[in-house]
Amino acid sequence: GDSVTQMEGPVTLSEEAFLTINCTYTATGYPSLFWYVQYPGEGLQLLLKATKADDKGSNKGFEATYRKETTSFHLEKGSVQVSDSAVYFCALNTLGAGSYQLTFGKGTKLSVIP
Amino acid sequence: NAGVTQTPKFQVLKTGQSMTLQCAQDMNHEYMSWYRQDPGMGLRLIHYSVGAGITDQGEVPNGYNVSRSTTEDFPLRLLSAAPSQTSVYFCASSYGPAKEKLFFGSGTQLSVL
Questions:
Q1: Contacts of B39 (CB under 8 A, 6+ apart)
Q2: What is the Cα–Cα distance from B16 to B33, expressed in whole angstroms?
Q3: CB neighbours of A1 closer than 8 A, spacing ≥ 6?
Q4: Least CA distance to B103: which residue of chain A?
Q5: How far away is chain A from the Cα of B24, in angstroms, using its nearest Cα?
Q6: Which of A44, A89, A99 sits opposite B98 (nearest CB)?
Q7: Is the pLDDT of residue A9 over 60?
Q8: In DSSP terms, which residues pair with B87 in a beta bridge?
Q9: Partners of A64 in the β-ladder
Q10: Interstrand relation of B103-104 and B87-94 (parallel, antiparallel or unpaired)
């Protein structure tokens, strides 16, 4: 079945460091790909998305490119801040445009220290 | 802007008790869903609804019931709570299929003793 694999955390970085969180997927058809972020004590929020191969999603300095050839959607940020400390979830929409289900990865906890 | 509102925020139950987790949204979204979040497991879909009067099962529906009598409300019922249902529960809504943006509530932390 469809699945998402994220790098295991936790990840601890110093402020202004470069961030990469790896995400690979297995899916039939042509899924849409997402990164959601969960700040402490809150629900998830959409961070960025890409709906077709080679699309780049970006928001708040974060970027991810939909790579069909490597089935990947790695999240990157050039300079992290303490306020980026959160849990990041990679997700995909299965079964094409009509599906109502998101398949999530297990999440990667990021801690940024001053 | 209220968005998606979940109540209660915390709940402790004894095995065998029943309860209802409430979820309401004020964005006129057709699609609503319930997920559970467990450590190391990510989020898993329990039930979802594509409109008033229409519900369907997700990945882990056993032990849970839902109904959708109005567009705004989508309650989740635990009929006979079990320790395996200890989890954090999130309600989410969107305008349409999951390829659109999901709006999440702030969650309900449930412990079953």
A1: none
A2: 24
A3: none
A4: A45
A5: 14
A6: A99
A7: yes
A8: B110
A9: A57, A75
A10: antiparallel
Is there a contact between B102 and A49 if contact means CB atoms under 8 Å apart? Answer: no
Distance of CA B103 to the CA centre of its chain: 12
Three-state SS for A19? strand
How far apart CA A30 and CA B92 sit, in angstroms, is 23
Q: Could you tell me the sign of the dihedral formed by the alpha carbons of B37, A9, A44, B102, in that order? A: negative
What would the two tokens of residue A37 be?
A: 């972020």
Can you tell me whether residue A83 is helix, strand or coil? helix
Residue-wise pLDDT tens digits, A62-97: 999 999 999 999 999 999 999 999 999 999 987 654
Please tell me the distance from the alpha carbon of residue A69 to that of residue A10, in angstroms, as a whole number: 28
The token pair that represents A39 in the structure block: 């700040």
Candidate from A93, A100, A106 with C-beta closest to B31: A100
